[in-house]
Amino acid sequence: MSEKVFPTTRLEAFSDGVLAVIITIMVLELKVPHEDGLPGLISIAPTVFVYLLSFTFTAIYWVNHHALVRRVERCDHRVIYANMGFLFAASLLPFFTAYVVDKHSDSFSVALYAASMIFTAVTFFFLRLAIARLLEQSGELNIEDKATQRKHIASMALYIAAIPLAHFHPYVALGAITMVTVIWIVPTARVEDSNR
Questions:
Q1: 169 DSSP β-pair partners
Q2: Of 1, 127, 151, nearest to 71 (Cα)?
Q3: Residues in CB range of 41: below 8 A, 6 or more apart
Q4: pTM
Q5: Measured between alpha carbons, how far is 157 from 141 in angstroms, rounded to an integer?
Q6: Where are the chain's structural domains?
Q7: pLDDT in tens, 116-148
Q8: At what angle do helices 93-102 and 107-137 cross, to 10 degrees?
């Protein structure tokens, strides 16, 4: 128990701040179109879509981060470093979002976007495992935790599949990436009362 040296309240507050800054940086990429009226809005629709996708991912991570971290009161150094790794990966999302927009969702930019999603998902998975270790020590690890880990792995598989798919059909690859949000939105919307 001496390993648990860091209160999760500080870890969660710091993470909330970082994720809020990430969302703020992303929204700065939305520029007013040069064209007037509806044609101007239509011209920035792809930009808005990619922003919405990145915002949704960040929001899902925030909800899951809260649901995960609140289950332990103190954490060890593994959790701290895993959390920092996740925040580093997440902090790169505004860059990769802007890259996809600037390159008009070409094959390489979409594949790179998928790769950034894999990196973020892997770091969050490490955080999930680090907290699961503490929950197992306290006897609070349950069947739902194992099911969530499997869903996390399935999500990473979709990201991996999106990389070669982007070479042939970038927008289909973006659709596959979008499917990951669908996988997570319904369960995380019911995170407080989920019995699964």
A1: none
A2: 127
A3: 33
A4: 0.86
A5: 24
A6: 6-189
A7: 999 999 999 999 999 998 888 888 888 888 888
A8: 160
